[in-house]
ATPase (Cellulomonas carbonis T26), 340 residues
Amino acid sequence: MTAARSLTGRRPQVPAERLLAGLVPPRQFDDASFASYRPDPDHPSQAAALDRMTEVAASLARPARRPWWRGRSARQDAAAIYLDGGFGVGKTHLLAALAHDVGAEHAAYGTFVEYTHLVGALGFAPTVRALAHRRLVCIDEFELDDPGDTVLMSRLLRELGDHGVALAATSNTLPEQLGEGRFAADDFLREIQALAERFEVLRIDGPDYRHRGATTAHDGVPDDVVRAVVDATPDATCDTFDELVAHLRTVHPSRFGALLDGVAAVGLTAVAPVDDQADALRLVVLVDRLYDRDLPVLLGGSGTQGLFGDQMLRGGYRKKYLRALSRLSALAERGAALVR
């Protein structure tokens, strides 16, 4: 297998400018707009959230100019919105629509993990400087399971808010909590502490519009089928699962997106359960980047069966693993369509 046909043969070097340029809504939300959001009439909170987000976008269209001598204090009234709700109620759609409306040159959009990786790659102060000139910073899938990262993000948002940057964030509840009225706002506001009073919480009720139930495990396809499909698919890659997991240890997570540049599909043979939590978390990040790019994935070995063990699924990173399984299953269905 040549380097061009294998992820393990790639060691991308990503300049800071590209990391920043990559802070845009994911591909599947390229066309997201306020006009294309369809509120459920049975849940008025969806229409209310749409109206409020539209107002925020209008307020950011022509931000008030401040005299340089007034300093930061004149800019502390920037909008800060937290979209609170379960899976599939349109939070990410509204967040992406807001970013599109403000414009790529004025808005940064990324997941919680992408921002923490950006700080890891650039350093805290350079990240603040790079984002402070934006009118809006959007944080999708704000995560509360790592105290250190939560404190880091709280500090980053505080700095950006002090510079007058508007903020918008989302997060999800766990699947079994849907419909129980237990949302994440209280946890979010508690964890961001000093920032809590700045955030306006918009609760969005309703069922998952995709009617998605529990994540369904996918059996792997035969490894020789994975290799045959990759050989017949231009720009597809094929790697042995354990070799890819080992390779990810040598690549900074901020470069996982670049690892997939020019790739049309990803094949993995001999897929097996992941025992090490650090490896599992790196795999979660890779799945997120695969999902952002909507890349078909062919899974050999055991597929997603037992990929993350019961202990992991009961632990503090449970939500990440459930999200990864859901996304990987969706990508595996796309990959199955390549099998002839």
